[in-house]
Design goal:
Keywords: Membrane, Transmembrane, Transmembrane helix. The chain is mostly helical. The protein has a domain of about 45 residues. About 75% of the residues lie in helices and about 0% in strands. Helix 2 packs antiparallel against helix 3. The longest helix is centred in the middle third of the chain and has 30 residues. It is elongated. The protein starts with 5 loop residues before the first helix and ends with a helix. The mean pLDDT is about 85.
C-alpha cells in the first residue's frame, strides 16, 4: 500500500483573519458561559464559588488556544 500523497495530508487552512475572529468568538462564548454559570450558582445557592473564579478566567484562554492550535 502506497503512502498518501502530500495533497491528501494537508488540511485547508482558513485565512488568518477568519482564524483570529473565530478564536476570539470561542474565547468570548466560553467566558460568557462561565460567567453565566457563576452568576446562576450565586443566585440559586446564595454563595459565590470562589474557587471557580480563576477557572472562569483561564478556561476561555485554553479553549481558544486549543482551537487555534488545531489549525497550526
Amino acid at each position: 500500500m502506497k503512502p498518501p500523497s502530500t495533497d491528501e495530508q494537508t488540511r485547508r487552512r482558513p485565512s488568518t483573519v477568519t482564524l483570529n475572529v473565530l478564536t476570539a468568538l470561542i474565547g468570548l462564548v466560553t467566558l460568557c458561559a462561565g460567567i453565566g454559570w457563576l452568576i446562576y450558582t450565586w443566585i440559586v445557592d446564595m454563595e459565590v464559588q470562589y474557587f471557580a473564579i480563576p477557572l472562569v478566567l483561564t478556561v476561555p484562554v485554553i479553549a481558544a488556544a486549543a482551537f487555534r492550535n488545531y489549525w497550526d
